[in-house]
Amino acid sequence: MKYKKLQKLEAIRGFSALYVVLFHMLPQKIFLFGINIGFFFRFGSEAVIMFLILSGFVIKYSWEKSADTSFRNYFFKRFIRIYIPLIFIFILAYALKSYAEGGFADPEWKTLLGNLFMLQDVISLKPNVISPTYMRNGVLWSLSYEWWFYMLFFVLVKYIETKKLNTWVNILTIIATISYLFYPFILNRIVMYFAIWWIGVRFADIYLKGEADTFKSMQKYSYVLLFIIALLGLNFYINFNDTKIYAYPLVAYPFVALRHFVFAFLAMLAGITWNKLNWIGFDKIFGVFKHLAPFSYVMYISHHYLVVEASYLQFINNKIIEYTFYVLLMLLFSYLVEVVIYSKIKKWITSYYATNF
Question: 232 with 179: CB under 8 angstroms?
Answer without folding.
Answer: no
